[in-house]
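Collaborator request, handled under Task 6.
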Amino acid sequence: MAKYVYTFAEGNKDMKDLLGGKGANLAEMTNLGLPVPPGFTITTEACRHYLDHGSMPDGLDEQIETHLVRLEKEMGRGLGRPDDPLLVSVRSGARFSMPGMMETVLNIGLNDESVLGLAERSGDERFAWDSYRRLIQMFGKTVQDIDGDLFEEAIEEAKKAKGVTDDLHLDTDDLRRLVDRFKEIVADRTGGPFPTDPREQMIRAVRAVFESWNAPRAALYRRQERIPADLGTAVNICSMVFGNLGMDSGTGVAFTRDPATGRTGAYGDYLQNAQGEDVVAGVRNTVPLTDLERIDAHSHEELMGIMNTLENHYRDLCDIEFTIERGKLWMLQTRVGKRTAAAAFRIADQLVEQGMITLDEAVQRVTGDQLAQLMFPRFDEEATSGDDVHPLGRGMNASPGAAVGKAVFDSYTAVKWSRSGERVILCRRETNPDDLEGMIAAEGILTSRGGKTSHAAVVARGMGKTCVCGAEELDIDTKNRRMTAPGGEVVEEGDVISIDGTSGLVYLGEVPVVDSPVVRYFEGEIDPASDQADDLVRSVDRMMHYVDAARRMYVRANADTPEDAARARRMGAQGIGLCRTEHMFLGDRRPLVERLILADTPEEQRESLSALLPLQREDFGGILEAMDGLPVTVRLLDPPLHEFLPDITELSVRVAVAEARGEDHENDLRVLQAVHRLHEQNPMLGLRGVRLGLVVPGLFTMQVRAIAEAAVDRLRAGGRPRPEIMIPLVGTVQELEIIKDDAQRVLREVGEEAGLELELPVGTMIELPRAALTAGQIAENAEFFSFGTNDLTQTVWGFSRDDVEASFFSAYLEKGVFGVSPFESLDVDGVGRLVRIAAEEGRAARPDIKLGVCGEHGGDPASVHFFHKVGLDYVSCSPFRVPVARLEAGRAAGLPR
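Structure tokens returned to the collaborator:
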């Protein structure tokens, strides 16, 4: 029979796939001899079976009963026994941390009889009835799917009747009445009484935790964090320890380093006379962990020692949940803590300095996404201190960054407005897991309650969202959709606010932003060895130097102007992987293209092309100068010619108006006729790319001549130009052969005219499935392949990107058809398979062929790892993403050469 249940003493931290992160780490702490309440873990395999078949696997009930009896014997109490009850918690715990996304039920085992036994054993009636009401509330919401607001409203009514504002001021009689009211809510909503059998409570809670794996918020979080949907969650059944036994008890969350900044030193929140969910939910404001030394010096000293043990053992920032029960410290959870991007780089660098990890391990602990976050703008310090900026208040700097948007007060509005193109700030008293969709949609999150370890703070840090928590001086009224500042100033829904996750300040209106220090470092404005550089810049510099030595792949940029090329080079680009020439035909050059399209004779075509030639030569000359000594891959004209003509509707109106007025409209009429002639039902698959070069005489040869002449000019100026000619949208080798022969003829002519030998590489883009499947044939005539993964994705999926992203992609993402858009991260199974086939067959036909990618996937971290794996020589992306690609290419390589 399969083993589905493990005691905490049987597992270890490397068993996360089976025991989940929480279960594996509880086992590890148990093995380290730390004070962990006894318990056992039900495996992810049991969860997957339950979700697949709708029932518990054979033998699971018996194994749970066996381990429960063993736990009862170890604790000397029975689950729910009237005179001396054992109570347990039932908590989720997946392979990857999903804070607040799945379910937890505390105090399992309480009923009308055992609550009396708990009161007698603890000597505290209030505590017993408080624990009972918590069970009914959590069980009702989690297991019985009752609206949690009903319970919260009942609590508010009880406080109002008592004339108090804090739960702690409700006495035993108040809590007894609250339990009765909660039971009425359960009966009213379910049609039956609250279950009083302790084992029934436990089994139903286990099933609810299993089912919470597929809850909408959990599925949304997995898509956001790219966590596989088929992992399932483990369930941890742990003997209860109580932080709500009085002021000598409490609960807290601690980090071995600051997860927001990465600064060294223990850090966290503590709440007296409370259970763990109170801290995470943020319903009561906590005190800093440092205050625990004053409250309970012995427990504080023991906790500091345990935190040091755990950080040295895990060799990383640890996130810890603990409870103190009447002066006795208990460890309820540990895990490698989520952190902001800045903290990730600082902590990795610190651990290298401390000799705890190697530099190679350090670069595996930072990501390209985190580096991109560090490159986002921040508020201008001069502007925030000026007279034009109006501060509203200050909270805790829970997750750094600068966020500007319209204030909204619920998740639904945040999503709705965001989809309409509005930037929003989600303002809540405190967030809960049901707010996740709004948190994702918002630019930033602002709460008036909760600390840096509250749900809002933890989730925001994980997502890289700016967050200010616990801004108590701001009265956030979600019901009336407004926020009131200390001076009485009211912010209505839709008013623009700015929040600074670094300082915790909240401003009315839009605060100007400036480049981050990390961007200024990449731009060469900050020397990492100077006093101007802070520890974050120095950490980034250290990692970048290491990954540049480690990576096998080169990183180029997509750039179409000398200015973009120069910026890309400053960002560390090692050439241009895609120079689009269509952008050079816009603006004041559009009339020249119109003349080419409208030409009636070969002579008129030649005249039009001759007029474009010097302009193209100048364009290429500037780019080659900016990238002197580095390769520049120039893509010959790709889009359909009609894109250079006026809009058909606008032009038709102009012609009709001119005819009605009897005005001259001959030229507009000729252009309109050309637009109709060139109109295509599906331009993406029409007359574009290599087909243009075959159908429009002289177009591609003009561009090749401009490239060649620009190279000659640079050589004469003492430069080292390295242009490469790329032919787009090739589907068959015959197309490539014809255009390549023409290109080489022009290169010979220009070389002879200049008295130089020009040998410029000629290659092609692989952006059609047929090109990928016949790559061996094409490689015989191509000196390089550049995978155009944007168009390759469109043609593999049968998508028109401009249409589908707006029409049904959101539905596909919500329904789980995609985990992530295939235009954002490469579809490895489909598009990736064609890339692999083309790379293998291309190399087999021409071993020295150069392989690269020039779609924006070249800057996507997950895609970069795939391109490294299939053996591409370089990736190319926008200039801003070049540092991200450099970092990920080094991480993919793993070890320096």
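The cover message to the collaborator said: "DSSP finds 37 helices and 33 strands in the chain. The mean pLDDT is 91. Please let us know whether this matches your experimental observations."
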